[in-house]
Design brief:
2 copies of one chain form a homodimer. Chain A is built from 13 helices and 15 strands. By secondary structure, the first copy, chain A, is an alpha/beta fold. Chain A folds into 2 domains: 292 residues, Aminopeptidase (3-Layer(aba) Sandwich); 116 residues, Alpha-Beta Plaits (2-Layer Sandwich). In chain A, helix 3 packs across helix 13. Chain A is globular.
Chain lengths: 416, 416
């Protein structure tokens, strides 16, 4: 296995386009950019070296296929190659790398599968550039609302449709992305946990039961802008002072719900903008964004209801105008129970400690799961940090995840 | 007086470069721009029609002088012509207009002064463009730190020194700005109140005793950025949740100080920036700006000390890093007591209700007062609103202020 480990280490650098994973500013390889394309190119080079057939679909997703039989079903593994601004080199790459390493190991062992096995490197999984996540996997699953999002702009004013076309694709054809041939029997994604549950319990593998997709509120609080120096305290309608208690309330309410132990929830005031945002002006308007996640739709509802009630209270006390918009309200996604049940004994056979857990973050698998039986495997990442230059996963855990995939496939895909 | 009123109404529009004072987006006539220059041009046209000598100094301040005797001292009136972004047409213009109208009235009456009388239209009073206020009056008073501020940029990346040079001036000569001849005996500024004290007590004139210049704190609170979906509530070091109670505390403490009635204070969290400011990220860093004003240096000190103590408490409770920088700490400016004592009976003689009050906002007079005996007169403005398209002062109050100036000058400047 030492040979596989060093191949993986080399390939990790290759997919990240660096010779050293320590990058002070992290990795900024956003979706539908030249940087993502360079990484996709490396993916194809590596896949071809392994004797796999490579393919790009209409959404720019990369496919590497161990094709054995046109009529046989396909098992797919994979994740994505793009990152957020100043992100890490493991979120996404880990799953693509583990997939490629799994096929390399099976090939090196002389294994001859009776089903096709594909590795997918999904395009533009992160929402960092256009505010929309998992574009490539949505397109494959035929759930991309391409008419509603093509106009969205990145920080440079480039629209999503322009960015896609700059990659040599056609925006109006993006929803024609599909499995290159036949149908998928199942899809398994491996990903770093982006949390601390594995690390803090010293567990090697997380088998994910459900994905807690977000409910997101955009709250506008309007008071009255005026001069900070000339407006007496009792004459003010300061929108920031009015809305500020909500920040603490959101945290308090989430902790209170978690204490009941009926399920868990996280809730965050993650965006805040003042208008004006100027030293000598009382903020007349505040716009707040709240991100709420739980695998329980009922707990998410309890949280939003309590926020609405709290805002009513603020309106009464502070004579401000408040408008709330639910900009996202995605139901939790349950992953395939059969796959979870098969992954668990495979871990035990290999001597890997494992636990069932939920995912607070969205992943490409949440789209795939709506169409095909799908599973998600987590490996530990240091301090639970992701989307940050300090993101790090030990090679030994990447190898553990790969071994799990190897054995899982061996059970599922009988040698011909 | 009907004739003077209609002349003033016409001139108000002329200085504001409009035929209708109702402008939905307000006035954006920033310092050292073509727009300010156009208004300055109108000022010179009007002054010349009144038979005054016009002059521009090295800082771009405009002077209109009723010159009677080279050796006689000069009394100056004035204010500024620039505005903030989307501001009103009274903040600044009111004082310039009242000054011009005063000279017109004295001339029309055949009054022959024994001292020179000047109207000054100061350049770039507002800090909106470069973050530095009262540039023109600072230059006249020789207190402009031109070496420290020339590099400051506006929203388009134009530096202050470039903007000044674009107006045909020389940045390195700006501190050579001075009184065109002789010395100033005193300076009086008329300005809209930008507060509600006059309006709410139905008082026509405010005689300002002191100017409460700001103390400004920049507070950086650093926790830990992480993913909103994957980081459990108890694992977080959310910088926004940590610092948020400060927003309410600043208001509460100011109200508490004011209740003691030992003097008044205003304090505002007026700037707030999250980093990152993204739906799916826990804010790892928050930068807050606080603006504190009082004519009592002791009360300002009490406020800042209590903020420091509150922050120590936050640090302990939330394990965040907090850094505070006092970016501005200007002492209050006391205006000339003799001028105030003379203005008061002049109001009484004219039958104008008046009150002594403090100014929460800075004005050009705060620089002039450091060099020459100076006074500041407030007239009411509707709802205390300024720096906003809704800023409005009734013509009748502009006339009241002008009449006060006329009579004040008649007492001060004996007819030859």
């Amino acid at each position: 296995m030492d040979k596989l480990l060093s191949w993986m280490e080399h390939t990790l650098h290759q997919l990240n386009l660096v010779s050293d994973m320590n990058q002070i500013d992290g990795f900024s390889r956003l979706g539908y950019t030249k940087e993502e394309q360079k990484s996709q190119h490396q993916f194809r080079v590596i896949a071809q070296e392994l004797g796999l057939e490579t393919n790009q679909d209409f959404a720019g997703n990369q496919w590497a296929i161990w094709k054995v039989d046109e009529k046989a079903p396909t098992i797919a593994l994979g994740s994505h190659l793009d990152t957020v601004y100043h992100g890490g080199g493991y979120d996404g790459v880990a799953g693509v790398l583990a997939g490629l390493a799994t096929l390399k190991a099976l090939k090196d062992e002389g294994f001859q599968p009776n089903k096709n096995i594909a590795i997918i490197a999904f395009a533009c999984e992160e929402s960092a550039r256009f505010g929309v996540s998992t574009i490539g996997s949505q397109a494959i699953c035929g759930i991309l609302k391409e008419k509603h999002i093509g106009h969205l702009q990145d920080l440079d004013g480039i629209t999503l449709s322009e960015a896609v076309e700059n990659c040599g694709l056609k925006w109006e054809e993006i929803n024609q992305a599909k499995i290159p041939r036949g149908d998928l029997e199942q899809f398994i994604e491996l990903h770093i946990e982006q949390g601390k549950q594995l690390e803090s319990t010293n567990t090697k593998i997380g088998i994910v039961s459900a994905i807690a997709r977000p409910t997101r509120l955009k709250i506008m609080c309007k008071g009255m802008t005026n001069h900070t120096g000339t407006t007496r305290m009792e004459e003010r309608r300061d929108a920031l002072v009015a809305i500020a208690p909500l920040i603490h309330f959101v945290e308090k309410k989430a902790i209170e719900i978690n204490k009941r132990q009926e399920g868990s929830i996280v809730a965050t005031v993650s965006k805040l903008e003042l208008n004006p945002n100027s030293m000598s002006m009382i903020p007349g308007e505040v716009i707040i964004g709240i991100d709420i996640r739980s695998t329980s739709a009922a707990l998410k509802k309890e949280m939003t209801t309590s926020i609405y009630e709290f805002l009513e209270d603020i309106k009464r006390k502070r004579s401000v105008y408040i408008h709330v918009e639910k900009i996202v309200d995605d139901n939790p996604i349950q992953l395939d129970a059969f796959i979870q049940k098969r992954l668990h004994p495979t871990c035990s056979e290999l001597g890997f400690s494992s636990m069932f857990l939920d995912s607070g973050a969205g992943h490409d698998v949440m789209n795939m799961a709506q169409k095909w039986p799908s599973g998600l495997i987590f490996i530990p990442c240091r301090d639970g940090i992701s989307h940050h230059p300090n993101e790090y996963a030990e090679m030994k855990y990447l190898l553990v995840g790969t071994k799990l995939l190897i054995n899982y496939l061996k059970e599922l895909v009988v040698t011909k």
